[in-house]
Amino acid sequence: MVALHTSQEGNTFTTYPNPLIIPPLQDHKQTFIILHGRGSNASTFGPPLLNTQVSEIHTFQSSFPNVQFVFPIASKRRAQIFNRSVINQWFDNWSLQTPDERTELQIEGLRETSTYIHILLRGAIEDVGAENVVLGGLSQGCAASLIALVTWNGEPIAAAFGICGWLPFRIQMEEIAGSASLDNGDGAEEDLFESDGEAVLKDPPTQATAFLCEELEISVKVHSMSFQRVPLFLGHGVEDEKVAVGLGRESVSCLKHLGAKAEWREYEGLGHWYSSGMLCDLVDSLKRLTTWEQS
Fold it and tell me: Which region, left, alpha or beta, applies to residue 225 given φ > 0 means left and ψ of -120 to 50 means alpha?
């Protein structure tokens, strides 16, 4: 089990079960970290994903024979919207029909999960190098992975992807990132944040990222904004009945305001899941964006 302390001073901690690790079909050269959805787990989610056909001769797994697949498992948390039932979830959240309501429910889980995913990223980077690491997720796993990516302060990884997800705190971040910087009347830009009484000039995307880190109480002295250099693939079913496709569209719009290099794909007739066509597009995108050689 992996014990994660929520803060250096705090006494509480959340425990995440050991991830499900699927070894590569050939030599280990790359690592994918992929998060399951709310109420699911790695063993239910991971193997069917890897076994999905993406072409006549390849499954998703065989398309990347040198990849070690890491499927983290969400901790048990009480879901307020389900009468405080205990389920596997990366963070608690209220209704996605009104994503701007009760956002405080998300904070603890997003902080802890982001910290945990950052630990996994650092381990993967140590093993194979940042240029060989991919982060992704489905549904709430997509939402959690996007927050972990935006708050990541390490080297830019090879790529990231999300399926049928959304971006928590999108509304607040888009208001900051999409707004013009304040003018102090002398033609110079004035920052919304101050440090030790001195104004620190930041562009709107950096201000929005600083807001997110402060909201989640993730300590970052100087944010590298490395997510801006990580190619991002986002796919969503148009008929998604759980996470409306509109939330996905709004999320990619916000991410672009933040400076992310996001590719957006919609799939007619698809609900809250992936399809062979979506995974085929994802495989093509990842291979186009990387220079990995198979062996």
Answer: left
Residue whose token pair is 């990516």: 149
Q: How far apart are CA 279 and CA 93, in angstroms?
A: 27
Kindly report the pTM of this predicted structure: 0.89
Of 162, 149, 161, 120, residue with least CA distance to 223: 149
| DSSP character string of 65-88 | TTEEEEE--PPEEEEGGGTTEEEE
User: Are the beta carbons of 93 and 104 closer than 8 angstroms?
Assistant: no
Model confidence over 147-205: pLDDT tens digits? 999 999 999 999 999 999 999 999 999 999 876 444 434 444 444 444 444 444 478 99
Q: What does the pLDDT average to over 86-98?
A: 83
Phi, psi of 172 (to 5 degrees): -65, -40
